[in-house]
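Researcher: Let's do a round of design. I'm pasting the structure tokens now; please hold your answer until I've finished.
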């Protein structure tokens, strides 16, 4: 149930020159894609030059529904006939993420899973089949499932054949980001070992982190970029504060050599990120210090809703900020809080996995169950004439939180499978079963929260309608009893 990954899901994606079927459009340099990171402006791929660019309106940030993502694809690519979206198989590293109202930014790097904006009639991906590898496919016309589900089907099928999943693609769309089948390529384990050995010979420090299904095929240079990009994301805690105090002249540093090849740009990313933080240890220490501080209201008396990371619970929690003073464990949204401090939790979980997995692979780390904060916030807000807007906002918050939690589990799963690579087949199955149950539990919890939201919304709407009926009836009776009678007024009330 591993995605190529969520979510805020690792090899750097190389833009493939491909022909996108459009009505009269020439071949495009890159595939249409959108990427989101809550608290920052959405990004989209410029299909003419293969570069990521900020939201053209300067206002749009993360979107909570697949329907909303499809609509956003259609907005940023009006000249293309966008008909569907699907999660990408691999995460990407994107620089220069801007906050709202900023046109240019310093080099803020984040690693995210983009969405591919599918153009025209659906055409399945063309998969390369290396020597000694097998091309397989599965279809079920009675099933309509997500990218995540079919990725799991492909990965488990390869695992049962004692092979590794090399590449995969969706088949037979049946909804927005939903499909009835999957095509995939399985490669022998020996082939994988050969690739890893050759990569290690080229890059001594190629410490592979989580990635998509074919992480073990990624070369060492990409892994180094990913590793440093993760440091950049963590270092954002201090950079965000510094950026707000900078003059607009800072934006001049962005993309000074925009025309360089992608490989050179990747090397530059590594160089920039290395100068931002001295060592991985120092970055982790800064983040741990910030995220371990207690929530502070400060000396002022405003009541501003903020989030802080509760290190004992391993998750972000709400508190009221006074408006001045306090400390840096203070974030605008839960998503941004987890993006910065979630690594504190995941690092401890990773350590636990490495210590226990070889002895007992079934004893895997578990993600702390989080309370339905998005639902609670909505339930605590009394219904009013803006009920529908409150409901939509709560729904978007819930979906964003669910994606973040799923992304965290996927990262843990990928790392656990890497640790269990040399274990017996039965132990590998135990790893898969453990995380399958965890993902199913998260899906069920999200479904319950969605149902609670909808039921509450319907009850409030019904109550509002009843109030309006009661008021209309009272006005009607009052109009009937008026002296002298006012026929036109009565008619208007009835109408």
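Researcher: That's everything. Go ahead.
Model: Designed sequence:
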């Amino acid at each position: 149930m591993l995605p190529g990954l969520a979510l805020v899901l690792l090899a750097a994606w190389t833009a493939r020159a491909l022909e996108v079927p459009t009505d009269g459009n020439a071949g495009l340099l890159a595939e249409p894609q959108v990427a989101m990171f809550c608290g920052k402006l959405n990004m989209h791929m410029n299909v003419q030059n293969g570069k990521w660019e900020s939201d053209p309106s300067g206002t749009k940030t993360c979107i909570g529904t697949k329907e909303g993502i499809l609509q956003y694809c259609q907005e940023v690519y009006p000249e293309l006939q966008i008909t569907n979206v699907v999660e990408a198989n691999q995460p990407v590293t994107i620089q220069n993420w801007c906050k709202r109202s900023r046109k240019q930014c310093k080099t803020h790097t984040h690693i995210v899973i983009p969405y591919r904006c599918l153009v025209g009639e659906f055409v399945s991906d063309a998969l390369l089949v290396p020597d000694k590898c097998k091309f397989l496919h599965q279809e079920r016309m009675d099933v309509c499932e997500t990218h995540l589900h079919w990725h799991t089907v492909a990965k488990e099928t390869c695992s049962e054949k004692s092979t590794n999943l090399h590449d995969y693609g969706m088949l037979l769309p049946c909804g927005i980001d939903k499909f009835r089948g999957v095509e995939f390529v399985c490669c022998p384990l020996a082939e994988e070992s050969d690739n890893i050995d050759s990569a290690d010979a080229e890059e001594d420090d190629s410490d592979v982190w989580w990635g998509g299904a074919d992480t073990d095929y990624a070369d060492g240079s990409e892994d180094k970029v990913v590793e440093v990009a993760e440091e950049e994301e963590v270092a954002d805690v201090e950079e965000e504060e510094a950026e707000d105090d900078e003059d607009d002249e800072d934006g001049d540093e962005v993309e000074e050599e925009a025309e360089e090849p992608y490989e050179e740009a990747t090397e530059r990313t590594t160089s920039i990120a290395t100068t931002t933080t001295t060592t991985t240890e120092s970055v982790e220490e800064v983040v741990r210090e910030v995220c371990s501080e207690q929530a502070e209201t400060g000396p002022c008396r405003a009541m501003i809703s903020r989030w802080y990371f509760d290190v004992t619970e391993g998750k972000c929690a709400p508190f009221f900020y006074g408006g001045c003073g306090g400390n840096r464990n203070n974030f605008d949204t839960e998503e941004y809080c987890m993006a910065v401090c979630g690594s504190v939790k995941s690092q401890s979980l990773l350590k636990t996995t490495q210590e226990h997995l070889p002895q007992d692979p079934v004893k895997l780390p578990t993600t702390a169950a989080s309370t339905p904060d998005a639902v609670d916030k909505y339930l605590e807000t009394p219904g009013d004439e803006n009920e529908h807007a409150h409901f939509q906002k709560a729904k978007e918050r819930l979906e964003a939180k669910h994606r973040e939690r799923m992304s965290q589990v996927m990262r843990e799963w990928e790392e656990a499978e890497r640790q269990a690579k040399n274990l017996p087949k039965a132990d590998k199955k135990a790893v898969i079963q453990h995380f399958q149950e965890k993902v199913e539990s998260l899906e069920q919890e999200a479904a319950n929260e969605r149902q609670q939201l909808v039921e509450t919304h319907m009850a409030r709407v019904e109550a509002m309608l009843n109030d309006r009926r009661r008021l209309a009836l009272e006005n009607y009776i009052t109009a009937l009893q008026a002296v002298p009678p006012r026929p036109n007024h009565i008619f208007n009330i009835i109408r």
